Task: inverse folding
């Protein structure tokens, strides 16, 4: 039994021949529908924040620097390529590209940021009222999510290590609760 | 037995100590039991033929209910489950321990001792299980007032006290990092010569706090994606189990086509996982031909997953109320052709290795654990089926579309690693069979029925999904802020690993890797290290190049 098994194993090994791929010397493309790096189309985005609200990794940050300018920052280093943002976006401003060769020494290589000009309300001067859910707000609710105003503006962000200068650079950055004596 | 007869039996025997069932858990028997009589009732359930699954501890103080503890029991032959709930006042979270009767409840109780500050008088081994050795006393991370991102200061010179070596034995440490365990875990193996006489385990070194994170930070429909990342091998299992438990709790209906697609993904995952495990098992006994070829056969399965879902492993298919991507007729054809190829290849693999005396010598009689012991330790999955315990959640507690599909549940009676190899190999063919049926029977229709309004709060849902390595249990209590109030995950390794010391008993030390490997423990690994300087607490991350130079220089 032992020796016949060994023969069968030789056949098992010889039959398929060489299966090792030539990658990376021979390039390999991802299949259609692959979920690679998400890419934003600046011209389509209306700044509703739906993607930021639904990102399971919380890696899309929104910040209103002034009433007219909203900044959307995508930190690709924590992205899980789930494609939820692209699915949620009402304007189809996000596409999941087939890019998968994303290894890099610097996380900023993976970041994308959008500066969005928002229309202000002629009466109150704000982009739009966030407490009374209006049409734009409702778009952000696709996929089922309701959050309070606070949770919306302060989108949490976690870094690997605590860096005071990062904290200083952004007001909406929440620092981890440290228990000093 | 049915749920009704069980309820009558318990009422007759324990009278007012058993109340309920609580309508908060539709389709399940959720009973409230008197705290003092908990061990008695649990014992009785086991005597009636129940299998202990896991406990769910919760902090209900905000609702004035103190602390809650739910023990879950499954009646596999009768196809239903029972949950018994007790509560304790906020000031004295004390529950009588059921571990002396049900050893596999040991970890559950130790877990809530760590995470919720419960006390279990009568527990035979009230030691730390989950929290780090230097985690300060008196901070219980799963309590509501503790922030999810709390980082207490690190302490030095604290170490876990391993069990004393039994007289006449010597301790051999395996881990925390060991080449045969692809995950940090520390076994202290007590040997007499080459024979293993006992073992203590210290694990949970990669505890990520996913339950706490999901109960406080993300929302219902983001959790499937987090759940999927609980395990790098059976991710779809966790996503499906989570979704199903919320759907059960909230009474959401899922389109039939979506249920078939979920089954399709679960079975595809099983094929990849079984082949992966077969390869690893071969590698652990030094039979690398098996490793190479099992993984070669597996690769087309990964590529197929990539074509169907957009990713080779994290499928991302499941959301509440259905799935995200449909199976087109072309994809169905693609699946059929890959299945045909894989089936033929696995047949060839089976023929080439099953009769090899090398495998027999390394696996037969190794990790022997008689059926009665395996039942006592509530083993699940192929490890249980290799010990002639005929359980399979797909057949016993059908979910998704399994009630319409026919398949066999292979078992073996050798009670050892050999049986596990056999069971897992045969299950590959069953999975192929199931997937073909799914493609034939799948009805047309929508694939998603997204929830339209807020989900009701404080409802209970339970879901059991047969993962490749055993039954995964998810328990959800719905909450008010668009996220679960409590979400409890029990992966199959949680129970199987508790049985490992018993499996190791009287085996040869050289068989340690394959015995531990036979339960297919969940791996998680990282190839970077953080070095913290003593005194200053400054951190520095060593990259791979530095580590390589360091190791080549002999660590000098
Ligand atoms: S792909 Fe997923 S993780 Fe990445 S940004 Fe989009 S939603 Fe977030
Ligand atoms: S969901 Fe789309 S439109 Fe809304 S902020 Fe994101 S990218 Fe812009």
Result:
């Amino acid at each position: 039994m032992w020796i016949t098994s060994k023969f069968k194993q030789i056949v098992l090994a010889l039959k398929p021949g060489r299966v090792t791929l030539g990658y990376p010397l021979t390039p390999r493309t991802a299949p259609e529908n692959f979920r690679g790096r998400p890419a934003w189309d600046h011209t389509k985005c209306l700044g509703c924040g739906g993607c930021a609200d639904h990102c399971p990794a919380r890696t899309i940050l929104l910040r209103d620097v002034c009433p007219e300018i909203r900044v959307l920052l995508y930190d690709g280093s924590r992205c899980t390529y789930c494609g939820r943002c692209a699915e949620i976006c009402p304007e189809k401003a996000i596409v999941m590209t087939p890019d998968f060769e994303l290894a890099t020494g610097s996380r900023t290589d993976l970041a994308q940021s959008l500066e969005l000009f928002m229309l202000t309300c002629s009466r109150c001067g704000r982009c739009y009222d966030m407490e009374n859910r209006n049409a734009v707000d409702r778009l952000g609710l696709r996929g089922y999510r309701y959050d309070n105003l606070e949770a919306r503006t302060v989108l949490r962000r976690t870094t690997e290590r605590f860096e005071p200068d990062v904290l200083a650079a952004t007001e909406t950055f929440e620092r981890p609760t440290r228990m000093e004596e | 037995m049915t749920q009704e007869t069980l309820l009558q039996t318990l009422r007759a025997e324990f009278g007012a100590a058993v109340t309920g069932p609580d309508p908060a858990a539709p389709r399940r028997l959720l009973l409230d039991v008197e705290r003092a009589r908990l061990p008695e009732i649990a014992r009785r359930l086991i005597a009636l033929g129940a299998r202990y699954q896991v406990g769910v501890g919760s902090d209900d103080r905000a609702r004035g209910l103190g602390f809650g503890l739910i023990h879950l029991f499954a009646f596999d032959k009768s196809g239903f489950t029972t949950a018994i709930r007790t509560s304790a006042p906020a000031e004295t979270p004390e529950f009588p321990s059921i571990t002396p009767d049900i050893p596999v409840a040991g970890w559950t109780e130790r877990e809530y001792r760590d995470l919720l500050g419960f006390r279990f008088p009568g527990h035979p081994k009230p030691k730390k299980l989950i929290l780090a050795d230097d985690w300060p006393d008196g901070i219980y991370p799963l309590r509501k007032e503790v922030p999810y991102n709390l980082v207490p200061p690190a302490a030095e010179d604290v170490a876990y006290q391993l069990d004393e070596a039994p007289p006449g034995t010597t301790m051999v440490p395996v881990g925390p990092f060991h080449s045969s365990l692809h995950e940090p875990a520390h076994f202290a193996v007590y040997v007499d010569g080459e024979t293993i006489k006992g073992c203590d385990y210290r694990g949970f070194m990669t505890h990520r706090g996913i339950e706490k994170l999901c109960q406080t930070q993300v929302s219902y429909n983001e959790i499937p994606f987090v759940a999927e990342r609980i395990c790098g091998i059976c991710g779809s299992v966790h996503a499906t189990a989570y979704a199903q438990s919320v759907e059960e709790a909230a009474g959401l209906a899922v389109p039939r086509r979506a249920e078939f697609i979920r089954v399709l993904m679960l079975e595809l995952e099983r094929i990849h996982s079984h082949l992966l495990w077969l390869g690893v098992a071969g590698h652990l006994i030094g039979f690398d031909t098996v490793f190479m070829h099992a993984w070669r056969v597996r690769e087309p399965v990964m590529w197929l997953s990539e074509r169907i879902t957009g990713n080779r492993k994290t499928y991302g298919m499941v959301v509440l109320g259905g799935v995200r991507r449909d199976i087109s007729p072309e994809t169905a054809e693609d699946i059929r052709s890959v299945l045909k190829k894989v089936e033929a290849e696995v047949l060839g693999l089976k023929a080439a290795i099953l009769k090899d005396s090398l495998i027999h010598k390394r696996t037969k009689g190794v990790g022997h654990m008689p059926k009665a012991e395996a039942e006592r330790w509530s083993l699940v999955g192929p490890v249980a089926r290799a010990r002639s315990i005929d359980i399979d959640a797909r057949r016993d507690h059908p979910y998704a579309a399994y009630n319409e599909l026919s398949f066999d549940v292979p078992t073996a009676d050798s009670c050892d690693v050999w049986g596990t190899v056999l069971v897992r190999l045969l299950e590959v063919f069953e999975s192929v069979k199931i997937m073909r049926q799914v493609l034939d029977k799948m009805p047309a229709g929508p694939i998603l029925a997204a929830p339209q309004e807020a989900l009701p709060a404080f409802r209970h849902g339970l879901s059991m999904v047969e993962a490749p390595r055993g039954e995964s249990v998810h328990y959800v209590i719905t909450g008010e802020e668009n996220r679960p109030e409590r979400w409890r995950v029990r992966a199959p390794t949680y129970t199987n690993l508790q049985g490992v010391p018993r499996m190791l008993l009287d085996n040869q030390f050289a068989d340690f890797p394959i015995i531990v490997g036979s339960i297919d423990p969940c791996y998680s690994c990282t190839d970077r290290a953080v070095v913290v300087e003593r005194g200053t607490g400054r951190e520095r991350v060593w990259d791979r190049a530095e580590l390589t130079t360091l190791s080549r220089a002999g660590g000098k």
